[in-house]
C-alpha cells in the first residue's frame, strides 16, 4: 500500500503550527526531517500528536467526505440536488465502484491517520529511552491518546471495507483490512495482506485496553486540552466496540461503568438542539468530540484547516429577492424526502397541488400554520427540527439578516419534500461567510449513544424492562421531559409504535431511537450494516433523484479503491466488485 509509506515528518509538524528547524533536516534529503534528531522531547511528541488529531478532519474524513460523500449516501440520509457527478449518484444507489472518486479520498486519509499514529508510537519509544520520570508520565498520556486514535482510524477502515460485521458469531473470518504497526521504509513493506474482521476488532480492542490503562484517572481541564482523549472516552469506545462485535458481557460492563461512574448526563433539550452548531461544546453529555474552529486562513477539506467543509456541501437554501431558492453555499445534498415522513411529519406539502411556480408567494398558508401547531404540540418528533430546517417555516441568517428557508435548490419535483440539513451548519451566517471552514465540533461519542447501546445490550440478557427505561430516557429528553421520570411519551414495550410509518422502524423503539436521535450524525450506516437491514432500508427509500436504489448483500462492504489494488499486489478486492 503506497499510502503506508513513511511521510515526511515535517508535514506532520506543520500541523502543529511549527516550522522545520535546520537541526532536524536530513542533509541527504533537505525536504525530510532526520529521524535521528527528531523527535527528541516531549514537546516534539506533542507536535506529532497534534498532527494525529488533525488528520481526523482531513478532506477524506470529517473535513468533507464523511457523510455527504459516504455514509449519508449509503444509508440514504441524503438525496442529491447536484446531478452532475455520476459516481455521486451511483453511491446513493448503493452502487459504488472501485474507481469512485470519493472512496479514493477516504481510504488514503484514514491510512494516513494510522501511519501518523505509528510514526508517533515509534517516536515515543525513542524519546522514552532518555526521558526523566516526569517526562515519562507525560509520554504515557501521549501514548494512550495515540492508541485510542489508531483504534479510531481502524474502526472506520474495518467498518467501511471489512467484508462483514460479526453477527451471531459469524463473519469474523471474513476479510478485514491489513494490520500495520510499523512505519514502512520501502515499497516491499507496503505489500501487505488483509487480516480478518475478527483480527481487526481484536487489534482495535487491544489498543483501547492499553489506552484505558495509560489514561486511567486522567481528566483534561485546560481550554486548549478539552479535545483530548480521556479515560471515559476510551471506556465508551470500548463499550461500542464490544456491541459491534456482539460481546454482550463486556459491552454491559463498560457501558454500565460509563453510565454509573463517568459523571456524564444528558443535556437539556434547549442545549441539545444547538450543540451541533458550534454552541455548548464539551458539555456534560459529550464523551469525545472532534475539536473544530472557524478558519479564515484555510478552508475546510484539509487537515491544515481548523474547520470542516461538510457544512458547505449540506448548506441550506433560502428565499432570494425574487421569492425563489438561492444556495447559501454549495447546497449539494438535502435530507431524503422519506426521512421527513419517518419523523412522523404528515402535514401535507408547502405547495398546493397544481402549483407551477416554486415561489414563496405560492406557499400554502394552512401548511405553515399546521406545521407550527404540530411542532408546538409535539405530534411530530421534535428531533426533526433539530436535524433539519423546514422550508417556508424556518429561517437562516445571511449577511446578518434573517431569510426564510426555501425548498432545496434545483429540486424541480414540486411535490417532493425538499428540506435542508440543520446539524453541522453555521446558524449565524452562510458557510461562505466563514471561508467554508465550519467550526462546529463533531460530537463523535455522547451519552445518548451509550444509553441506547446499553439498552441493546440488555435485550441480549433478557433485561427488557431496564432496556426500555434507557430507550425512554433518550426519548424523554427529545420531548423536553425530565429524563429520569415517567412521561406521557414513554414507550410501553420494546415493540410499541414509533413515529415511523415503515416496517423497519414502526414497531421497534430501539432502532427508531437510534435512527432519530443520531440523524445526520454519521452513525446510521453502521447500524444498518451490523443489523443486516440494508435490503429493508433500500425497499423503504426505493430511489434517489438520480435513479432506483440497487441493493445487493455485498453492498455492506465498500470496494477497495482501484489505486490500492494496483499498488499492492497482495490486496484482494471485496466480493461483488
UniProtKB/TrEMBL annotation:
Protein keywords: Cell outer membrane, Membrane, Signal
Gene Ontology CC annotations of this record: cell outer membrane
Localisation per UniProt entry: Cell outer membrane
Main location: membrane
Start and end residues of each RagB/SusD domain: 416-577
Location of the SusD-like N-terminal domain: 24-242
Pfam families in UniProt: SusD-like_3, SusD_RagB
Taxonomic superkingdom: Bacteria
Membership in a protein family: Belongs to the SusD family.
Protein name per the record: RagB/SusD family nutrient uptake outer membrane protein
Protein species of origin: Dyadobacter helix
Organismal lineage: Bacteria, Pseudomonadati, Bacteroidota, Cytophagia, Cytophagales
